[in-house]
Specification:
Blueprint lengths: L4 H8 L1 H14 L2 H7 E8 L10 E3 L1 H14 L2 E13 L5 E12 L3 E14 L2 E9 L1 H7 L3
Parallel strand pairs: 1-6
Antiparallel strand pairs: 1-2, 3-4, 4-5, 5-6
Helix pairs in contact: 1-2, 2-3
Length: 143
């Protein structure tokens, strides 16, 4: 039995984009990140720490910020663990509870919990709200 259109859109839309986003983060591929974000994308960090942006606008700003972080960050993401994925009334938006798992050059193994609200348009990220646990991130990098 074929999936209803809403489920088909989510299966090939936001969930697929989430997996490609995770792969790009693990491989630290700026080219892959650039292909994932729409030109006018917005990436927000509703919970942030001093010195970090709460909102990035446009593909170039987003990818530049991410790539700069890879160069200075002591964290290496190795995989993600999905705790739960929730559908929304918008078939192009999902909410994901997850953990980024990896190794820190400063502190060893880490698990960074976060919640992502991901909205895609035409197979690209239109908006990503990244509720990262800033205390866990600071601990992972040894602060």
């Amino acid at each position: 039995m074929p999936l209803p259109e809403r489920d088909r859109m989510q299966a090939t839309g936001a969930r697929d984009v989430l997996e490609r986003l995770r792969r790009a983060a693990i491989t630290q591929s700026a080219d892959d990140m650039s292909r994932l974000y729409a030109v006018d994308a917005i990436h927000e960090f509703p919970f942030t720490a001093p010195g970090f942006p709460s909102r990035l606008e446009g593909r170039d700003e987003i990818v530049s910020w991410i790539a700069a972080g890879w160069k200075t960050n002591t964290l290496t993401y190795e995989r993600y663990r999905t705790l739960a994925t929730y559908d929304t009334d918008d078939p192009e938006t999902i909410v994901v509870e997850q953990e980024a798992l990896g190794t820190s050059a400063s502190t060893g193994d880490f698990a960074l919990p976060n919640i992502v609200v991901l909205t895609v348009r035409d197979g690209q990220i239109a908006r990503l709200r990244d509720y990262v646990n800033v205390l866990a991130a600071a601990a992972a990098i040894g602060r």
